[in-house]
Design brief:
Layout (H helix, E strand, L loop, with lengths): L2 H4 L2 H13 L18 H10 L5 H13 L5 H6 L2 H7 L6 H19 L7 H5 L6 H11 L9 H10 L8 H11 L4 H17 L11 H4 L4 H5 L3
The protein binds a DNA duplex (13 and 12 nucleotides) through helix 4, helix 7, helix 9 and helix 12.
Length: about 230
DNA sequence: ATCCAGGCGTTAT
DNA sequence: ATAACGCATGGA
């Protein structure tokens, strides 16, 4: 909106990534899993299942849950935890995730049923819900404008030079939220683009020659790194 | 065969 | 306060 917010690296990188990759369509808003409407509960479950896990694996677990009619909070709290664990096995860490899904579902039944968005602190108090998962749920399921920080975000912007190694989650989140307009759709898209870029180009061993950010001279790592 | 995924909690320094 | 570790499957 203000010119100061438009002319910064964070904003420019968003434009570059969007131009390069196009919209990512994250958390299938129009019903890959549900024909018709978006399902906040399912997005929340997916957010837990994908923790430190490839999305494809989380998706397999989601499919298995749905096929068994287990994609409701009631069903998940009522099934024995070891059975739930077995169903979500493809997502990895299935024992912890099963236990923690049940805690999330109890919270859901107690607090979220009536179209209310959950409170960030309430989510953080649940075992198994950290800042990234909480913000993912609030952003992608409830459309609350919170910028999600993950390992890709750190890696990419450490290399660009905007953040340093030890910076806290909150510090990074503030940086992003103060640098770009508080628009839920922008936050949604930007985080998805960061993940895409981190997977494809800014990997652990980066592919700097193929990187648009590097091409525009915005990444100091790319100029040092020859590969 | 190794490495890594859209983290988090617990335990050790 | 922060570093190290366990949790686990599936794809590249």
């Amino acid at each position: 909106m203000v010119s100061a917010t438009m002319n910064n690296t964070i904003h420019t990188v968003f434009c570059l990534l969007l131009d390069k990759y196009g919209p990512q369509g994250w958390w299938p808003v129009n019903g890959i899993y549900f024909s018709g409407e978006e399902n906040p509960f399912e997005i929340a479950v997916g957010a837990v299942l994908t923790q430190n896990t490839a999305w494809e694996n989380a998706e397999k677990a989601l499919e298995r849950l749905r096929k068994r009619g287990l994609l409701t909070a009631e069903a998940i709290v009522n099934i024995p935890v070891y059975e739930l664990a077995n169903v979500i096995r493809p997502s990895g860490f299935y024992n912890q995730k099963a236990e923690r899904l049940q805690l999330l579902c109890k919270f859901y039944l107690r607090r979220v049923c009536k179209n209310e968005s959950p409170d960030r602190d309430e989510l953080l108090n649940l075992k198994g819900i950290g800042p990234e998962t909480a913000d993912s749920i609030l952003l992608y399921a409830f459309h609350i404008p919170l910028f999600v920080i993950d390992t890709y975000t750190r890696r990419i912007f450490i290399r660009i030079g905007s953040v340093s190694e030890g910076d806290s989650y909150e510090k990074l989140q503030s940086l992003f939220m103060n640098s770009i307009p508080r628009d839920e759709k922008v936050y949604n898209e930007y985080h998805a683009l960061i993940v895409r870029h981190g997977k494809d180009i800014c990997r652990k061993t980066p592919r700097c020659p193929e990187c648009v950010v590097n091409r525009e001279g915005l990444c100091r790592f790319g100029t040092v790194n020859s590969l």
